[in-house]
Structure prediction request, 488 residues.
Amino acid sequence: MPDLSPRRRMLVLAICCLSLLIVSLDNTILNVALPALQRDFGASVSGLQWTIDAYLIVLASLLILAGATADRIGRRRVFQTGLALFVLGSVLCSLAPSLGWLVAARVVQAVGGSMLNPVAMSIITNVFTEPRERARAIGVWGGVVGLSMAMGPIVGGVLVDSVGWRAIFWLNLPIGAAALVLTALFVPESRAPRPRRLDPVGQGLMIVLLGTLSYAIIEAPGQGALSPAVAGGALVAVLALAGFVLHARRAAEPIIDLRFFRSVPFSGATVIAVSQFAALAGFLFVNALYLQNARGLSALHAGLYLLPMAVMTAVCGPLSGRLVGARGPRPSLQIAGAAMLASALMFAMLDAETRDTTLFAAYVLFGIGFGMANAPITNTAVSGMPRTQAGVAAAVASTSRQVGQALGVAVIGAVLAAGTESGPGADTASGFVAAARPAYWVLAGCAAAVLVLGTVTTGRRAARSAARVRDLFDHEPELRPVSGASTR
Prediction:
């Protein structure tokens, strides 16, 4: 890809951030709208989990395929297709007559969403080639997540309280249309000269694995862990995992090359992403229900309560990007893990929900932690891999995030559902606090994983590990990525 002017590079970054904005905004707003959905459709907790996880499972399953396809047929072309499908899915969501139809429309959204974030990150990686400049660009990218979190609860609350939950999907139409036009005008087309082959077997096994695992976790509280459907789903997930690993070891170019995970930074970034986003998804799920169902707040007031967390995420994302560019990923990850752990322990041990002061303090700490973690995860995952395979590397990082969110909603939602079904008075503030306490211990475990892995998998030894993996690919010509990228 030829060098672009600084103004053109920033414009490309802004366009790519628009795609992240509509995807992140959609999920944030949906969490605020969950109680309204529950009332309109008479949905159970597991039904609410499926409105989120159906999207996340499909998204996680297709991200790597989308990244590889973009490297093959053109990143701009795939990016535009994803924008169109996401807008179409949003329209279908706004028209859904039942919970089942809403879940189906969310699947359409997910197919489009899978073509956005990893492809946008691949475009950014190929436009911003200087490491420090790229780290700052990724910091801005992370800040957009915070912006969406800040906007989502407020905008979603206003729409849900005034128009209804269907209006939350209308926001994607003007943003998506603007991104489509700007992409056609300003984003250059690019491909990898030697794109990866498609892997339908690995793709199918990944879908089966994520779908059956999420089903088993979500439905276990209601049907029982030993029920035939739940036990069967868990067994199929185990078999799919075994088949996926076996196939990946034998295939010439599997959907995920397991040799990537010999890089300590890449492996660490992958697990940290799963842990961080599991904590985020579970945190939003539990608090959206608590603030509205237990405290009796309106959707708008619940959004205002969540605003301190969102603002800190928006502020810390760019700061983290600069810190990564200057000091590497370790300080940002350590701050992130420590802050999220402190927040989770305030809920698990001190019942932070019972007082507004401690509730807001815990929200601020969680926002700091989440905002600090985004940039080092993405930068580490992409920097540790060959640049010409940026689509696949970025897609693996994005997949880890979506897998984390799906598992977070499934596991933490299941723990919450078990507590609310067994504990009396779970619809009151005090009863909900007691029922949610085990869920916050799960969140604390996720935060501790970020802290420990952020320390262990970064530094000089980890960098040498990444260099050895790059050398491994360089000494295998038949599988070696080709340098450069074509542009038209």
In short: The longest strand covers residues 190-191. Strands lie at 190-191, 486-487. The longest helix spans residues 6-41.
